[in-house]
Fold this protein.
Amino acid sequence: MSEKKKKKPHHYGNKHISPAELGRYIEQTLLTPNATEADVIKLCKSAIRYNFCSVCVHPYYVPLSKAILSGHETTVTTVIGFPLGMTMKNIKVYEAMQAALYGAQELDVVLNIGAVKSGNLDYVAGELSEILAANKSIVHTAIIETCYLTEKEKSAVTEIAAGCGVGFIKTSTGFGPKGATDKDVKLIKNVLKDRAGVKASGNIRTLPQVMRLIKSGAARIGTSAGLEIMQEALAS
Amino acid sequence: MSEKKKKKPHHYGNKHISPAELGRYIEQTLLTPNATEADVIKLCKSAIRYNFCSVCVHPYYVPLSKAILSGHETTVTTVIGFPLGMTMKNIKVYEAMQAALYGAQELDVVLNIGAVKSGNLDYVAGELSEILAANKSIVHTAIIETCYLTEKEKSAVTEIAAGCGVGFIKTSTGFGPKGATDKDVKLIKNVLKDRAGVKASGNIRTLPQVMRLIKSGAARIGTSAGLEIMQEALAS
């Protein structure tokens, strides 16, 4: 395969996207319950190789990831209250503070979906505000776990999170029965406008899927298949 | 159905077990990602009705469960580092302290399975010791998530947890690809002897399954189908 062919841009809507640009959309994710140190090292090395935007790892693996990625453009993202979002508020605040202290540059916070489904939206807003206030200089993402929400709830929590000042809304934890859909990305983007970006995540495994999600408005793609997607982009 | 028939004991090995005794084995569990306040209230009421040993709820729902179960025999169990066990040690310690402060009477702690799989057993032991030291008068359970472990690892973490002084070893979170098996219950019991009990959990849905697990050595059954299992026992 020629170098020229490798760099052929992919199309979404009327825009082009090169493999190098594609890498900047990808948040390479490893949140399996049995992820080892060796797995994390491999993940970070692949992120450096393709200049991925970020890696997303368990809090326990933040120091290791940070050490490997030091001096590279790829940031370290970790998760707060993951994947159920239903621990106590103080714990989520403390987890966020500690993760930042250990070197996490971005925090993906799972909203308390039980509170959303119980109609306690004020609690959800208060919790997110406190978490954001704990680390003012860090990019926060609210994971809203779309698969459990009605359309009205998706809009409501997006509005709440935008009001709190998050950098991104993320569709899914990857642990629910369903991941990102084009329709949900469009809905969230429509509520957000330019106040924050949309991270599509959950069961994203192919290049055409990524291109559709970007076309729908996703600014970032959270996936554990970043490597395979890049290889698909470079080979096509 | 006559009252006499309702009270017919079920058999496991050469022992008998009545429906009333069966209720004392059951830890009625609600750890779904979208559990509402209404769901928790329903759960606690069913636990009172059948005098279940315990309910197991998200930390967020400890105060609500505690308020409903006050004055009843059923205890409130909650989960620490659930279901992935891979947040930072300090967070798990703080979560345990806070959960006890809010009224939890038993704590089910997910071990850091990533650390187990990376061979860092000293870390796992240290973490569990610190969590137990934070609440000395409370019953702790170590969830070892058997589905990700080799036979050797299952024995090793059981030995570690017994050494730390847990009250129970629990087989599964219910979020992994596989739940409790008779074989795993026997293996854990064989390592433990009388130092602690075995809680079987994960995908337990029928009375015959419960009777087999008790026969294999389980002292407690963690299940979200406690109601259905009791109804099966009362009808048979």
Observations:
- The interface with chain A takes residues 31, 33-38, 58-62, 82-88, 90-91, 94-95, 98-99, 102, 112-115, 117-118, 120, 145, 148, 173, 175-176 of chain B (CB under 8 Å).
- The CA atoms of residues 34 and 58 of chain B lie 11 Å apart.
- Residues 121-134 of chain B form the longest helix (14 residues).
